């Protein structure tokens, strides 16, 4: 396996704060994990997932920086984990900025943004811990296209990110070989779906609008829409300064 150079790369843009222990406990309660602290939970997951080159179905390559400066997410299950990690970094950064810069928020609206941010922080830190040296670097973001003076635009973008994220998790699940990863991803995507629902609700209740919890994210059979990495990455790339490449992500079912 080609040696990853990612661990030597340092992000130079704004950083996202580390997750406080109280926020970790809050998210774990939502997942129904009451007995363990977040640190113990993350460490247990990290140790239970074998990412080594000889780790059975996990014999896949980690992320690397290409000659053109783009970041390759890697291959196999590691590539899928990095794919999810990039999306969680994006969501965490967005909500960090949104709760600080969005004008005209009510107390309840601010609480919603803060709670979602807390969840995304835990998701992000989980993937960071599991991937270790196989992880992509900390990414830099550009939210200049978001009008933070318009709360409706903020919740619209939030809903796009969340709905895209749900479709991304659903679409990536078919390519995962490690059963433990599938189980954990299922817990995360259920929380992301709640985020999509509440942000859609906050975005739609305006004069002349009609509320729909699905907000166009379900198919004719009432199932969530599934997105391929090739459909998700262009959406995420609109906010990420570094160029991401999913060229080596799996394309055949597990």
TrEMBL record:
Superkingdom in the source lineage: Bacteria
Protein name: Rubrerythrin
Organism: Runella defluvii
